[in-house]
Amino acid sequence: MDLTKLTLTELQRGWTFVDQQPTCLYCEHRWPAETSAPTLQAHLDQVHGGPITALIDLDSRYNTLTAKQRDLLKAFATGVKDRELAEQTGVTAATIRHQKFTFREKAKQAKLYLATYQAVFAQTDPHERLLDVPQHPQDPDDRWLITEDQAAKTLQRYFDFSNDPIQLKRWPKKQKAVIVVLTRIVEEIPAHQQFTEPQINAYLRPIYFDYTMVRRFLIEYHFLQRTPDGTAYWRIVPDRKD
After folding, report:
1. pLDDT of 42 higher than 90
2. Whether residue 165 has a cis bond before it, omega within 30° of 0
3. Which CATH number covers residue 225?
4. Exposed / middle / buried, residue 57 (Cβ in 10 Å: 0-12, 13-18, 19+)
5. Are residues 68 and 56 in the same domain?
6. Beta-bridge mates of residue 234
7. Which backbone phi and psi does 17 adopt, to 5 degrees?
8. Looking at residue 130, what is its pLDDT?
């Protein structure tokens, strides 16, 4: 999931709106617009162990909690008394209180950092803003450090936008240009759906003659994912990533 596009409220409750439909942050299940909050809560409780547990265990490179910290936070969320938790974990009540103090201090640090970051970068020149990065098994390297201004110039160089769908004039040689091209091509494939290989090919064939190569690069660069047997493909939505 893209954490930067979610509010604290959305992260805490476990769902957001996508195309005006309530959508689970963890399995991307969608409900009709009129679905009640208790129904959404029931899904989170039954499928994901509750919004608090799901958030604590969120599989994201931004989640730096250790296993011990996760267990403590889940215990604190139940409202258990310090002394009782101390007995359960074999430590003193003072140790438990110190852990709470540590969590509070980290929260204060995070709040101050977030305020500082927003104050500084909310005014950043659009030419310096970086492209969103798709979910990735490893931290992105410097190939992904591409500004929106650089991306716009690359797109104009390599694509013919007079046609519908767009057409790729030639395949770029430089890595950053390849990433920009793939970032634009994948937008032609609907998100939150699964496709067969022929269906994916149908989206890519009008864009570039060597559509099988494009499909391979989309998978290699983690814009698309597929099942091991290749029967289903789907688009990776940025860090919903990073």
Report:
1. yes
2. yes
3. 1.10.10
4. middle
5. no
6. 194, 225
7. -100, 130
8. 62
